[in-house]
Amino acid sequence: MFIEPRVGNKNYASRRGWIEVICGSMFSGKTEELIRRLNRAKIAKQRVEIFKPAIDTRYHEENVVSHNANAIRSTPIQFASDMLLLASGCDVVGIDEAQFFDEGLVDVCMTLANNGSRVIVAGLDLDYQAKPFGSMPALMAVAEYVTKVHAVCMNCGDIASYSFRKAASAQKVLLGETDTYEARCRHCFLEGMKEK
Ligand SMILES: [Zn+2]
């Protein structure tokens, strides 16, 4: 389990920023892990802001809601650069569904961390074709800490790293739940792609 190098240091002079990435397939618990870290920061009386792309409207408009309905208030934004203004002076900045943000996200995260914020980014590392997704690979490169979480293959029960799309749509941004996607291991993902 990820343990923070530091949680509640309010001394501004010693404030140091860094970037954490939480990545994995669908149903791997990325958002749960993001919420866990943010709640710990809140307990330490840190100022926390949470953002998600305005595109992700599956659940409640203003909440980062994970699949286990463990909700936390968040702000939907259009562009990654909106965060620079909205997150100024925050101790901890949480970002969910990071793969859907524009390419400016990497620079935004760097600026926030350079200015002393702890930045925690959660997102899909691979799209439904098993290709690196959006800014995630670049974020993993610049982050101090990368945590890859795993789901369970819904076909065979092995460890799963891939999001298999059961529907036929070729649209990259297709939001959905268990009826559209399932987590799969490498073997079952390849088998499923062959069948298509
Ligand atoms: Zn499998």
UniProtKB/TrEMBL annotation:
<feature type="binding site">
    <location>
        <position position="185"/>
    </location>
    <ligand>
        <name>Zn(2+)</name>
    </ligand>
</feature>
<comment type="subunit">
    <text>Homotetramer.</text>
</comment>
<dbReference type="InterPro" id="IPR001267">
    <property type="entry name" value="Thymidine_kinase"/>
</dbReference>
<keyword id="KW-0862">Zinc</keyword>
<keyword id="KW-0479">Metal-binding</keyword>
<feature type="binding site">
    <location>
        <position position="181"/>
    </location>
    <ligand>
        <name>substrate</name>
    </ligand>
</feature>
<keyword id="KW-0067">ATP-binding</keyword>
<dbReference type="GO" id="GO:0005524">
    <property type="term" value="F:ATP binding"/>
</dbReference>
<keyword id="KW-0418">Kinase</keyword>
<keyword id="KW-0963">Cytoplasm</keyword>
<feature type="binding site">
    <location>
        <position position="156"/>
    </location>
    <ligand>
        <name>Zn(2+)</name>
    </ligand>
</feature>
<keyword id="KW-0237">DNA synthesis</keyword>
<feature type="binding site">
    <location>
        <begin position="24"/>
        <end position="31"/>
    </location>
    <ligand>
        <name>ATP</name>
    </ligand>
</feature>
<protein>
    <recommendedName>
        <fullName>Thymidine kinase</fullName>
        <ecNumber>2.7.1.21</ecNumber>
    </recommendedName>
</protein>
<feature type="binding site">
    <location>
        <position position="153"/>
    </location>
    <ligand>
        <name>Zn(2+)</name>
    </ligand>
</feature>
<keyword id="KW-0547">Nucleotide-binding</keyword>
<dbReference type="Pfam" id="PF00265">
    <property type="entry name" value="TK"/>
</dbReference>
<feature type="binding site">
    <location>
        <begin position="96"/>
        <end position="99"/>
    </location>
    <ligand>
        <name>ATP</name>
    </ligand>
</feature>
<dbReference type="GO" id="GO:0004797">
    <property type="term" value="F:thymidine kinase activity"/>
</dbReference>
<feature type="binding site">
    <location>
        <begin position="173"/>
        <end position="176"/>
    </location>
    <ligand>
        <name>substrate</name>
    </ligand>
</feature>
<keyword id="KW-0808">Transferase</keyword>
<dbReference type="InterPro" id="IPR027417">
    <property type="entry name" value="P-loop_NTPase"/>
</dbReference>
<feature type="active site" description="Proton acceptor">
    <location>
        <position position="97"/>
    </location>
</feature>
<feature type="binding site">
    <location>
        <position position="188"/>
    </location>
    <ligand>
        <name>Zn(2+)</name>
    </ligand>
</feature>
<dbReference type="GO" id="GO:0046104">
    <property type="term" value="P:thymidine metabolic process"/>
</dbReference>
<dbReference type="InterPro" id="IPR020633">
    <property type="entry name" value="Thymidine_kinase_CS"/>
</dbReference>
<dbReference type="GO" id="GO:0071897">
    <property type="term" value="P:DNA biosynthetic process"/>
</dbReference>
<dbReference type="GO" id="GO:0008270">
    <property type="term" value="F:zinc ion binding"/>
</dbReference>
<comment type="similarity">
    <text>Belongs to the thymidine kinase family.</text>
</comment>
<dbReference type="GO" id="GO:0005829">
    <property type="term" value="C:cytosol"/>
</dbReference>
